[in-house]
Design a protein that fits this description.
Number of strands: 8
Distance between the termini: 51 Å
Mean pLDDT: 84
Strand content: 25-35%
Oligomer: single chain
Strand order of the largest sheet: 2-1-6-3-4-5
Structural class: alpha+beta
Largest sheet: 6 strands, mixed
Number of helices: 4
Length: 155
């Protein structure tokens, strides 16, 4: 259990569970080199400590990518994450974040975008997608609910 410095927290109110408070509890890890998809659980503590799509992405990149890895090397990771409001009727709820190692500085970089990706990601049952490795060929990833396919993008 995470202990928070403030008295009024969601846990203390008992009004919602982890899943009800904007998280599916699932992270989708895609190894594009080996064409392997794996679903991993996201803990409640991790979600509350690293709030939102950008927070989750920063946590993953800082803990899993070595400082020596360059932006264009297979050891770098790209994290696409939906925030806890994605897929809700709230304004700006389609937002998602992208976090990776940047080409210009070699440090962590992030960007956010609106649209429907965050809501669709959440409707497929995932909070984040971690893309790792480097494919030998051009591919794209097809996701529909629990169906995940690595498809050729070559013509």
């Amino acid at each position: 259990m995470v202990v928070y410095p403030y008295e009024l927290s969601i846990q203390n109110l008992g009004v919602c569970s982890f899943i009800m408070c904007g998280y599916t509890g699932n992270l989708l890890r895609l190894d594009v080199q080996r064409h392997v998809a794996k679903v991993e659980p996201i803990t409640e503590e991790l979600a509350y400590e690293w709030i939102g799509g950008t927070g989750m992405g920063v946590r993953i990149v800082t803990s899993e990518v070595s400082p020596d890895v360059q932006w264009n090397e297979p050891g770098n990771k790209i994290v696409l994450s939906a925030g806890p409001l994605s897929g809700t009727p709230g304004i700006g709820s389609g937002c998602f974040g992208l976090v990776t190692k940047g080409a210009m500085t070699g440090g962590i970089t992030q960007s956010q975008a609106n649209g429907f990706f965050g809501a669709f990601l959440r409707s497929c049952g995932y909070d984040s997608i971690v893309i790792e490795g480097q494919s030998d060929n051009w591919i794209y990833i097809y996701i529909e609910d629990e169906k995940i396919e690595f498809r050729s993008a070559e013509h």
